[in-house]
Amino acid sequence: MQTITTPKLLYALLITLALLLSGCQNRAMDLEQVGEDERIVIKFSHVVSELTPKGLAARRFAELVHERTDGLVEVQVYPNSQLYMDGEEVDALINNNVQMIAPATAKMTEFFPELLLFDLPFLFEDFEQVHRYIDSEGGEKLLDKFQTDNMLSLTMWDNGFKVMTANRPLYTPDDFAGLRFRIMPSRVLEAQFAQLGAQTRDMPFSDVYAALERGTVNAAENPPSNLYSKRFYMVQEHLTVSNHGYLGYLVLTNQTFWQGLPEDIREILEETLAEVTQWERKIAAEQNKRDLERIINSGEIEVHYLSEAEKAAWREALMPVHQMFLPDIGTELLQGTP
Ligand code: LMR
């Protein structure tokens, strides 16, 4: 057997080192060689704070995509309406000024009236029912429908169940009379409050705090994660835990952009998005529970949990809204709901 002399060993070590270094250099060179124009940039614009289910999911998506594409794809997340606010972000997507948005389904009902389904009061009792519907054949068919004006729907994310806030206690349907609610631009939400004798004003999310503070509106509905992160509870006196409606998001992309991506990259993005969607579902429930506790512990607002009897009275008062929108939504889609 040939003995390995020191010079030979040194030589072999040097070669190995050189190979290793050149490998790193190649990757670095690859990345370095990935010029700015080769890097794929996805601008993801949204209107809520980062510490919300949507904010956290967008950030996680960006981190995982960066990791899995070795930095070739950069997802730049713009929260808090930094880049585009409600009413602007859809056009920005259609014109490819941004490549991803995740508006509440309520804000897309003009484009896709079937989405009005998700605004129906007391349609879903809990997240499990929502997920069972979204993951069902009917739910998948629904999602596939959402392609128009160069927009393509990728998945749905949760926020949570809405509670009511106002400057007076809300226990019975009669307590709503004459209040001015801020709503998202959905005909179902308009009808919901009209049914209770309240007025409505749809406005961008980024304007809500100031409008409540100034009294332009004196009531609102939102899941606790939005109420807490935007401190709406600081400018309202009463909160009723009603869980009367679900707020979810449609994650959308620009169709030309998405279909123009290299196939392997698109696969990584779609797989990562599917994974983040499952993760997001878990944190959405936790985040809303935690934020409701934080609001209660702040002592800044009077909190009332609807009793079963009170909830039954609300449900009865609001059920006619379901009938009103049957023609827009269609019985077929409603059949799959609880
Ligand atoms: C709202 O406008 O109240 C919400 O849709 C904001 C959001 O994206 O959660």
Helix tally? 14
Tertiary shape: elongated
Major pleated sheet: 6 strands, mixed
Rg, Cα atoms, Å: 25 Å
Bound molecules: (2S)-2-hydroxybutanedioic acid
Head-to-tail CA distance between termini: 78 Å
* Helix/strand order: HEHEHEHHEEEEHEHEHEEHHEHHHH
Strand order of the largest sheet: 2-1-3-11-5-4
Helical fraction: 40-55%
Structural class comes to: alpha/beta
Average pLDDT: 92
β-sheet strand percentage: 15-25%
Poorly predicted residue ranges:
none
Total E-strand runs: 12
Describe the structure concisely for a colleague:
The protein is built from 14 helices and twelve strands. By secondary structure, it is an alpha/beta fold.
How does this model look, in words?
This protein has a six-stranded mixed β-sheet. It has a six-stranded mixed β-sheet with strand order 8-7-9-6-10-12. By secondary structure, the chain is α/β, with parallel strands linked by helices. It has 14 helices and twelve strands. Helices cover 46% and strands 18% of the residues. The chain has helices spanning 6-33, 53-68, 89-94, 127-134, 137-145, 187-195, 208-214, 224-229, 255-259, 263-298, 308-318, 320-324, 326-329, 331-335; strands at 40-45, 73-78, 100-101, 147-148, 151-161, 163-166, 180-183, 199-202, 219-222, 238-241, 246-254, 302-305. Strand 7 (180-183), helix 6 (187-195) and strand 8 form a beta-alpha-beta unit. Helix 2 runs antiparallel to helix 10 (263-298). The structure holds (2S)-2-hydroxybutanedioic acid. The site of (2S)-2-hydroxybutanedioic acid has 8 residues, from loops.
